[in-house]
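WP5 quarterly update. Target: Riboflavin biosynthesis protein RibD. Source organism: Methylocella silvestris. Length: 370 aa.
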Amino acid sequence: MSQVDADERFMAAAIALARRGLGVCAPNPAVGALIVKDGVVLARGWTQAGGRPHAEAEALRQAGDKSRGSTLYVTLEPCSHHGKTPPCAEAVIASGIARVASAIEDPDPRVAGRGHELLRAAGLIVRTGVCAQAALRANLGHVLRVTQNRPLITLKLAMTADGFVAGGPNEPRLSITGEAANGAVHLMRAMYDAILIGVGTALADDPLLTVRLPGLEQRRPLRIVLDSALRISPASRLVATARSHPTLIIAGEAAPAANEARLVAENVAVARVPTDGGGRLDLRAALGLLASRGLTRIFCEAGPTLAEALLREDAADDIIMLTSQKRLARPGLCGFTAERINALEDGSRYRLVEQRAIGDDLLTRRERIS
Ligand code: AOF
Ligand code: ZN
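Structure tokens (predicted):
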């Protein structure tokens, strides 16, 4: 196998390791690292819960003395700053690693190329850009937070075969998708820092937005509701479970203080952002607030209003559509205008990257073409 092929193969494995940290290491990026010598993997590391230790530190600790003369594969440039931990680039140099294959530069202004520079200055061979595209996807939450002051947003939509996104007013919590797809959605939730909905969905469905999968109950992504006028019911399941599952409501500046006080008393956090003339929350301001609180990845289980707003703002980085074969007996809540769906499907703004059956449902995933 050529060096280039081997680099790509090991980097793909490092990216798979990195993904283990998604949903647990914010505000830090989920990084993966492999230490390889003569084609043999000596150690594997990924960013740990809470963001530390960093991936390289984990792999180096495992490899011990054996790392001398080996190659390090790392999905993000090793850090060069003295932050909460000493710089990974220095630890890599001290370990005697001879060569580093790195996927992308870290846009964090404290690093921004200095990690690679440090390694080169110490005489290590450094190859950058290995599997850059795939690594960028895995690190996109971090990259967007640092460069655009907003988290990555995955928009998830579920639709019946006849184009409805929910049942009518008398059918709250009608499950559009089957059990297998619902399980897949819970697994997706676990890989994000937060779950986002609009107040319309909170009022119509009274959702819990928790991760209900055996072994992953401890994953508690922040549950966020955009609620300009603080209309959410204090009796809702979201509010009732706020002592055990962190919950944040983003309201407009004019929302009643008494409503806020009632929510805060139940352990719900309330933040405020400006609204436009029509009383709608400034979405960019809301996303900026979430980025400044350290959130990197948001899973948005939006109804039509919020989904349209995200698409209008060009803020949806990927779109997961779950389509069931079900047709509703009575007309339900209509999802999206035909133009919206066509716009998603014409391939100019989003590219189809995945299509598979989950049980009786069809999952498609589209990524924004940047
Ligand atoms: C790495 N390896 O696994 C991660 C890195 O607050 P600190 O000191 O933990 O530093 C956080 C920054 O380090 C973060 O913003 C990003 O630039 C980088 N994350 N770097 O070398 C890792 N998670
Ligand atoms: Zn580091």
